[in-house]
Hints:
The strands form six sheets. This protein has a five-stranded mixed sheet, with helices on one face. It is built from 19 helices and 19 strands. It folds into three domains: about 5-80, Roll (Ubiquitin-like (UB roll)); about 110-210, Alpha-Beta Plaits; about 215-590, Rossmann fold, CATH 3.40.50.1780. It starts with a strand and ends in a 5-residue tail after the last strand. By secondary structure, the protein is an alpha/beta fold.
Amino acid sequence: MAKTVSLTIDGKQIETSADNTIVKAAKENGIFIPTLCYHPDLKPSGSCGICVVDIEGRRQPERSCSTKVMEGMNITTNTKKLRDARKMILEMILADHDTDCPACLANGKCELQDLCDHMSVTTRAIPKKLKKLPIDETSVAIQRDPNKCIACGRCIEVCSTIQTVNALTEVGRGHKVVASTAFDEGMGNSPCVNCGQCTVFCPVGALTERSEIDMVWDAILDPSKHVVVQEAPAVRVALAEEFGMEKGLATPGKMYAALRRLGFDKIFDTNFSADLTIMEEGTELLTRATTGGTLPLITSCSPGWVKFAETFFPDLAKHVSTCKSPQQMLGALIKTYYAKESGVDAKDIVSVSIMPCTAKKFEARRPEMRDSGYQDVDYVLTTREFVRMIKEAGIDFKNLPEEKADSLMGDYTGAATIFGATGGVMEAAVRSAFFLLTGENLPSPELKVLRGVTNDIIEATVEHEKLPFPIRVAVANGLGNARKLLEKVKEQIAKDGKSEYHFIEIMACPGGCVGGGGQPFGCELVDRGIRGGGLYAEDGGLPLRYSHENPMVTKIYQDFLEKPNSEIAHKLLHTYYFERSEKDGKAVKEVTHKH
């Protein structure tokens, strides 16, 4: 445990950890210091200078985000000199910043906008010098607008340090520096895996999702189209905070009601196909484990992780589950099973998904995702896009009466809803794997050892007298942690010919899908934990908590899919993978084949 130090900030004597920076110590004690480039979940860069403070005995102001506290410090955060310096910095940023705020996707969520309001910066002493640069639309998932970039470095830090993808770098010199890709060739021509963490950490809307709202509205308003929607588990715990409700509250009933008022013809739930995924993936795991197949099996629900694996670990492709993600499973079933049951021609169905994830936009457009005979998922909206549609339609989300999803593929269990939190897929899988191995349910469905937002890799062994063998598992969230875990797996296989693990869960985003790249702007790690807690709370309150107990899943196997891993299940619900170039992320060759 770190020792504490005593210091004074604005006349208030405080005690704080000696490991803290000034800005963190101030925040913990209710003292406001304005920041812009700083983010509590990232290594401070000190690039903007907004957070300068005076420290007694030092000649020049210091940047509080990167200056450690010391015993006896006497700090002043607000003087005329400091205010003037901060205003000058803001004016310089605004002089080279696109300030068409009403048209910006980050409007109302922009940290620069908030700071200007806080500092009462209403005029510009420095003339506008912005030269319009082209917007980067090379990616199907992420749009980059260099005219809004303030060179804070957050996106570069999260991409290189937390995600270890290194798709972003600084381009230009002096005041012309912006975050871009190597040689400024565009996000779609880089190793970017579309995880979207850059969009979550960007303070100003320079990096956002590629919006598909207009296409979805066009489909809804076209009487010849039958528009079907699905929603991921993490979406239902992010909506409340956007509409003045308790942060992390699960609002599935209001979510369904809002979707009906928007005009969707049929409302299913990705949680249904999460339960289906457990049956397919659990059967795949047990088949491999009991027949000498390739282990460990690694989850395939996160498309950012899948592209990361294809780019940096193609030699481990045979370890990745052949199961499609729940989004793509449901997309294929909407245009086959639902089309058959409803009598709606598949060519008239528009399949829309609402996801906490920008990488889902890329996944939906992978050329192999057409097993229904059509593009399985036509459009993907992020949580942020869904919120904008609700507001555009004038829907009073907070006061909506709760409704239910449509039958056939709308029911789900608690195991499905925890898919949205890191460790949730693993917990759901173990619940059903135990049943498939023993014919009985676990004494308790809760495996708390697998829960919680963490910057570490979770390892656990599930043991029980009725299990034929202990199940050894690992969970990694964030691609930097995934890289560490996979390097360990590769070393074990090279040394011993096998890995110690049976099953590994990897989620591209820290905290899992609750912290996805399409979730509301301004998300910190603590917010991801609150959202995850909301999913676990919903799980605890549901009557069914094991995927194999979902009656709709039982029915679809009886009526259509026959059994887990059947021939038709493999055709519609499973996939294959490619090796991708580390230079531009493009597919080089197929490295696994569909069964």
